[in-house]
Amino acid sequence: MKRVVSVSIGSSKRNHKTKAKIMGIEFEIERIGTDGDIKKAIEIIKSLDGKIDAFGMGGIDIVLYGGGKNYIIREAIPIKNAAQKTPLVDGTGAKNTFEKWVIKYLQEKNVIDFKGKTALVVCALDRYKLAEGLYEAGCKLLLGDALFALGIPLMIKSLRVFYYLAAMLVPLIIKLPFSMLYPNDDKKEENPKKLRKYWKYFEIADIIAGDYKYIQKYMPDSLEGKIIITNTITKEDVEELKRRKLKMLVTTTPEFEGRSFGTNVVEAILVALTGKKLEDMSQEEIEKLIKEIDFRPRIEIFY
């Protein structure tokens, strides 16, 4: 049996362990959250290093993309370095390959007609390929990085502007505490006045895409008629979305016993299967392996 553990600096309330058979091999897949405690994440990784097949790193990325370059996030370095024997991945490779492929899959299977729809991508910095896929499928884009991640009342409406701003800002963003950029708790903003600046974009969007923690924190009470494309969804999240009258839920990662794990887990599974380091695998090789495994997006139509 192969064992994959995702160590996340996100909430421990979302912890989960399951077993799955992938390409004839038994896997034990576990997610361990540390409630924002980076030191605890490092301790867990060190205690399991060399004892499991692959680590996923959740709640924080190793790199952000900007201006044609990958920039390493300063706070992620000690977490990455804690794994000396077991490979550790953050999901970036799977995001860049799998998420764009999922949009094509949904289009080809006539699940969603993207042409002319407005897609709100809550944060495109770590999901720029998802944004590209939506644009190429015919969507009008609303890119919420400035608003949702930085609190700046600006909505970016083109990939060209996004890439220009990313080239300027990412070298500065990587130096900020990651807690300032990413909502790694389960708290929802309760002040209606503060929420209005976010709600209006949810209301005009047909499709809401990106990291579920951003979506969950800022989404309005009603999601009637909306489509969400995201990942890392629990059973409790699904029930919450049903109560808000969501039309359709798509998770870019597959479901294991009612739970959709993050792309870091998908990537860790690929590494455990092949025995290769991620940096030694091309994008084409990753995509081919995903197809061989037959990982498909989870699609649920509620209303």
Automatic annotation (TrEMBL):
The transmembrane residues are: 162-182
**Highest taxon of the source?**
Bacteria
Which UniProt keywords are given for this protein, alphabetically ordered? Membrane, Transmembrane, Transmembrane helix
What protein is this chain from?
A: Quinate 5-dehydrogenase
